[in-house]
Amino acid sequence: MQSTVSEAAVVAHLQQLRWLEASNGDKLTFSLGATRRLEELAESLSSTRLAELLGPVQTVRWLGSDARTWQQLDNPHPAVATMPGYFTLSADEEDALDRASLDWLLRDAARQMAADHPAQVNALGQELLRTQLLTFAREAERELALTYERDIRHYMRLRLLYPAEPFVRDASLRALLADLQVEGRQRVFEAEHRLRLLYPTLQDGSDV
Predict the structure, then answer these.
(1) How would you list the strands of the sheet with 2-3, edge to edge?
(2) Across all residues in the chain, what is the average pLDDT?
(3) Long-range CB contacts (within 8 A, 24+) of 146-152
(4) Could you report the per-residue pLDDT of 123-151, keeping only the tens digit for each?
(5) Following DSSP, what letter does each residue of 141-193 receive, concatenated?
(6) CA within 13 Å, CB half, 129
């Protein structure tokens, strides 16, 4: 982190940034050390609003999610004074932030899949991989009501690595995934167990 103003001014701004305010008044925890959320805000906010968020901070650098690539965010108009109140997001900014969060998830899931299952990813290609991940993420949220990202990631992995047929035709698999009275994490683990029974020669779908 770099700044041309005093350390006291930077500290005051960082303290002010501990919370963001949603358009409905709810408070959201935040810090410049929360690098994923910072990436998402950088994609969501206009340059003017991003400069307001960063305040006196001129440059922020962090290690990307791949643990190899350094990311850098520059503030073209560093401020001298801190904000008078919370940084409040508009409804449009919240929508843009939701889209950026989904994009981040898809990128990271694609990166992890490429690392864990390179043969399948190479066979698909990056464009088709992203399309399928987006489809499966929407299935997880809209049809299965999965809310936690860990469960959505797990479901996307199963959809990618196992044949599509049981997700459409296997009554037992469909019933356990659709049982919204059961917590999402348990449903996805039970789905994986069912898939392993259906495809006993496959190891985590690696031979699909």
Answers:
(1) 2-3, 57-63, 70-74
(2) 87
(3) 146/184, 146/187, 146/188, 147/184, 148/184, 148/185, 149/105, 150/185, 151/184, 151/185, 151/187, 151/188, 152/105
(4) 889 899 999 999 999 999 999 999 999 99
(5) IIIS---SHHHHHHHHHHHHHS-SHHHHH-HHHHHHHH-TTS-HHHHHHHHHH
(6) 22
- Which DSSP category does 77 fall into? S
How far, CA to CA in Å, does 188 sit from each of 16, 42, 129, 142? Answer: 40, 33, 21, 15
Which residues lie across from 59 on neighbouring strands?
2, 74
The answer to whether 194 and 172 have CB atoms below 8 angstroms apart is: yes
pLDDT digits (tens, 9 = 90+) for 35-62: 888 889 989 999 889 888 888 888 888 8
Q: What secondary structure does DSSP assign to 90-108, as a single string?
A: PHHHHHHHHHHHHHHHHHH
- Residue 12 is encoded by which pair of tokens? 């005051």
Alpha-carbon gap, residue 21 to 85, rounded angstroms: 10
Tell me the three state secondary structure of residue 122. helix
Q: Taking the chain, what is the end-to-end CA distance rounded to the nearest angstrom? A: 46
Contact 52, 16 (CB under 8 A): no
Radius of gyration of the chain (CA): 21
At 3, the pLDDT band (50, 70, 90 cuts) reads low
User: Which residue type is seen at 96?
Assistant: A
